[in-house]
Structures
1.
Amino acid sequence: MRIFLVWTLFSGGWAVTGPTHVMAKQGSSLAVSCSYKPGYELYSKYWCRPRFLWFCFTYIAHTNGSEVTVTQDGVSIRDNHMARSFTVTLSGVTPSDAGWYSCGLSKTLWFNLWHNIEVIVSAGKAGLGTKQGHAMEPVTVLGTGRPQPGEHRGSQSGNKLLAGTETCWRLPWCKSG
């Protein structure tokens, strides 16, 4: 029985990966990229808000296993089999979009594989911000968006994830690759 429980919990462990935290300014668009291991290319991919025990009962957007872009209520999802990743784009982000989401793939009824992501929405208008009177330019950094030990997670406004890289504004917590 114990072996079955361990196998159930970890059989697809880490099959879906992505950032842990992403940020967007209110009114902007947010693109989040999640990757998956080989062998899952033809499975349906989804984006949802988990409810009870991190399970999703309805999907905000989902594919049917193809690479066709699907758009539902301002949220689009597109799978790229060659890159083994799918990208979810939220348009016109609002404060109500903040919270925890799951990007995942549907295996069977109760054995989906997923990765949890926190979406943080900052106040202000979308677009380039300023820091001490200078326009901030976006820089690309590699990583998951997680701050390293000792880094400050405070004012992380204006970043988004796309295709496995993090685009963020030049702030103290943001490191270029």
2.
Amino acid sequence: NTRGGGHSEALKNYNVGRTLGIGTFGKVRIAEHKHTGHKVAIKILNRRQMRTMEMEEKAKREIKILRLFIHPHIIRLYEVIYTPTDIFVVMEYCKYGELFDCIVEKGRLQEDEARRIFQQIISGVEYCHRNMVAHRDLKPENLLLDSKYNVKLADFGLSNVMHDGHFLKTSCGSPNYAAPEVISGKLYAGPEVDVWSCGVILYALLCGTLPFDDDNIPKLFKKIKGGIYILPSHLSALARDLIPRMLVVDPMKRITIREIREHPWFQNRLPRYLAVPPPDTAQQAKMIDEDTLKEIVNLGYDKDHVCESLCNRLQNEATVAYYLLLDNRFRATSGYLGADYLQSMGRSFNQFTSSESASPSTRQYLPASNDSQGSGLRPYYPVERKWALGC
């Protein structure tokens, strides 16, 4: 029983459950994949509403981008189902919801916890940039936590599409994380905008507050454009060195993702799997996990058909089942994180185990910091290839 209001044929491979959240163009519902028994989140996007706002083609472009991505810290897109009335986007289910709610609930994180999360975020952002995609809407609301507290970059414009300079006209667009060049309406390449947003996120993780905030929007913009914020005294010396290098007003002098990776604060306790950049999407398509392949064959799928579909990046029942099994195998073995770390994270985040969500509909706000001046310079190398923009 899909309980999905007329979606039974389109979602015949899923048992659709309760609504997790409601967005601009539709809702997100939890579902169980019938063949594997694993949970997914299904975004149901209403095509009529999207056409009214001239967003359907944009959503299709973003889906095309996300289909290419295979990364442990980017939300997995399993399949997209089109009907005359709706677009069903079947995605990885993140049990513990938004990183935003974690920060609101806990306040500032211990530096080791914040670093682990930040390392995962930067790994995902770097992967996007290597594939010529700039997210442009990075914020804790768009960073989800799976059942093992791994971070997943999400919302590449699938349901929360914004136009440049229109932050105040959408419910999802927060200017608090936007770079000075964005709110000023200046031209920008893309990656340096994500670096600024990552700087704001790191500040929020370590401080439990936002560096730039004001109920008066002109005053908020003035703070952002001036780089006016305060670094709390409780931060370590290395954290106090890294954050200002990311929150440099001039994008040409802002630290790059590569330089963030090389920073001593970032390098501390860096997991082995994050020490080396992941292969590109073409290489990844040829990497097939033998144990998962055996499992998928045991479910009745043809081995040659599965391998051919995976190598050609096709979407069909076999590839959906394969990636669901692969992702859940990863989580079942504690993924990339050690057992000791997961145990400590479980203690730190145990208040979130009672609620499962992918996109909470209620919204709280992080408190603001006081004013001060931050500065830091790093050389910048320009991007020459054409970038795909996330929002």
3.
Amino acid sequence: MATVEVILKEKIEGLGAEADVVKVKRGFARNFLLPQDRAYEATKSNLRHVAQLKEARARREAEELADAENTATKLKKLRLSIALSLGQGGKAFGSVTTADIAALIADKSRLSIDRHQLLLDAPIKTLGSFEIPVKLHPSVEA
């Protein structure tokens, strides 16, 4: 099984991050990574260019981390309430989903939170107070 070295152009789950030099099977590189423009061959000239790409990635990741920490401090201060219609026996009509919560956060605080960042196991169908964790960055959770 022959392997080749490629330089990734973007993060690929289970393989590596942008500007990483990785060894993959020749067929995976030839049939998937290279045609979809997700990687390029690790030639001598391209390897020299990798250092610049890694510096840019480090700067971008530092900015993303700072933004995530700033957003986390704002979210920790935020308290929201949602009106829910109740039927007989205190059962709710419908439920509160991550999309509802993300829209409410955007409306009340002008923070842009994707619904997939909200770590809610199941939609909320009961009355009560809930603390919902938000995954803002791999190392920052609010």
